[in-house]
Structure formats: structure tokens, C-alpha cells
């Protein structure tokens, strides 16, 4: 009985285990796989040794590693470090717990690699570099992505329609590149910051609820763009409604077409009724006028007849 009383309850062991696990998770260094991936990345973009990452030390304390969680790197920010070369996509994709990735303000060149392995990425900053090639379509498969900043590079080609798949998109900055083609009809309600100025875009700017809120500064520097947002009406012969639909076609367009048909039917009925009413009124007026003329002529005839009779009677009396 005494031994049972002295024995601590199992709940205490559970609490102690959870506490120790939490402490270890916070204090443990980055896993060797993340550290090795970072060193491989460094070898491809740091010829000037701007990143003092000594092998065998805790990578969570390395320059640019802003956050770790459970021994995994979650925030990598390498900005304005005079990095150059091309990004090693294979090593980057091994950092699959990244939430934030930034190479802002360097001289990294080449194509943007495939980022499909960064399934947890929320913010991507690659602006102010020398990236070239097409818009990386792999970015649009990262469904948690909210912020995309690719401004001030040498990217070209079309802006992909697959951006519509990013339902959480909050920031899209693509200004000062060489993008061509039309602007996709972005309609994410989450979109608050948008800029495609100083590219080579053309056609009508889609009039979606998401894009209509942005002013001229978001579209300037694209001489072949037209639309309400930049006070430059599109010519019907060049850019008809089908060239840049305001909304995706589908079931949502059917109610509006039904309403327009109903309005036309009502307008036609009202117009027909008014025409019939006016014709009837005109006929009625003509009938009344003719009837008045006939009655007037009959009255005059009777008056003349009475006068003649009266004259004859008077002559007989004098005789």
C-alpha cells in the first residue's frame, strides 16, 4: 500500500516526457540532410564566400537561417549578399519545410529552378536578380503560396493561367521584366498587392473584382495594354469581349443571359402595348372627328330647310 502511494501517477510521466520533447525540439540542431543541402546550395551561388557556414556547426545559427522548427530550416533569407551563379534546384527541394525563401538583391542568374518540392512554401522573394527564362510553372503547384515577388529580373514569356489555382494569393509582383501576352483573369479575393508594370504585355486588362481595384501604377509601361483601369478604352475591332473575358465562362454567365432575355421580352411587350394604345387612340380621334362633321352638316341642312319653308309661308300671306 505504501509503495503504491509513493509511486507517481502515469500522467506525471506523460507531462515530463512532453516537456523534455519540446525542449529538445527547440534546442536540437538542424538535421544533417538540411545542413548538407544548404552547403550544396552555397557552393553553387557563393563564389566570394559571403556565407560563413562552417561545416559541423549548428546550421540554425548560420547567417541567413532565420528560423528552425524541430531541427528543420523553415525560413531562409539570403538578401543583398552579392551572391551569383545559378540556383541548385535539387538541394533547395530538400528543404521541404521552408515557409519563407528569399534571395532578394543579389546577382543570381539563369532560369528559376523547379520548386515543386517546397510544398510548405508560403512566401517567395526572388526580386532584384538576373533570372531569365519563362515564368516557373512549378510555382503555381504550391497551393500554400501567398506571396510571389519576381520583380526586376529578365523573365520573359507569358504569365501562366495556372496562377488562378493559387487560391491564397496575396501578393503578386512581376514588374520590370519582359513578360508578354495577356494578363490572366485573376479573381482571388485574397489578392491585395499586384504589379505588372514595365513589361511587354498586351490586350485588354480583365475587369475582375480582384483586378479592378488596382490603378494605373500597377499596369503602366505596357504600351499595348488597354482597359478601364488605365483609362485607355479598347478598340472593339482589336480587343473584343472574347479577347480578354472579364470572368471565367461557365454557369455564372447563364443567369445574366437569362436576365437579359427576360428584360428584352418585357421591353418588347411594353413597347407593343404602347404602339397598340397609340393606334387605338388615333383611330378613336378620327372617328370622333368624322362623326362631328356629319352631325354639323345635318344640322345646317335642317336650318336651311326651315328657312325655305318660312319664306314660302310669308309670301302667301301678302297675296
Automatic annotation (TrEMBL):
Residues 32-65 form the Leucine-rich repeat-containing N-terminal plant-type domain. The chain crosses the membrane at residues 262-287. Coiled coil: none annotated. GO terms for cellular component: membrane. Keywords: Cell wall, Leucine-rich repeat, Membrane, Repeat, Secreted, Signal, Transmembrane, Transmembrane helix. Residues 308-319 have a biased composition (Gly residues). Residues 293-303 have a biased composition (Basic and acidic residues). This is LRR-RLK. It comes from Vernicia montana.
